[in-house]
Here is the input.
Amino acid sequence: MPILSYNNVDFVSRSPEQTRRLGIRLGALLKPADVICLNGDLGSGKTTFVQGLAKGWGSVDAVSSPTFVLVNLYRQPGGGQLHHLDAYRIESLLEAEDLDIEALLVNGPLVVEWSDRIAGVLPDDYLKIEFTWLGDEQRRLLFTPQGSRHEKLLQEFKRLAFGG
Here is the structure.
């Protein structure tokens, strides 16, 4: 296990409900142009986390994995848009460039599953969350911010989620 940086957060979720609650707390803090990068094996909790994230952000839409459509759009009553991108089936950076990531960030945040596959087209400022399957009900979530905005976001999330 790697030594954590002072600004990382390492958490073990003990249930899908707990994973969703973490997502709700982070979602409540999201602003337009925030980028949340999710990585982890199939079944590690990424979509469960996004369900909470979208709810906390204020989405009125149901969340599902966008594996076959690439991008799902979740809306807020006030007009905000949260884009949920699944890069699992993207085969090249050239294909990823066609997604026009900048346009997806105009009216809201962007959540990217399998973000490592398209890292070359993502902004330099993001919050990365690595999901690891530990057992039937347990998932490890390792939060790592990149850039000042997402360092601040992670600090706000720590206070909101853990009181620290």
Remarks:
- The domain at 31-144 is CATH 3.40.50.300 (Rossmann fold).
- DSSP finds five helices and seven strands in the chain.
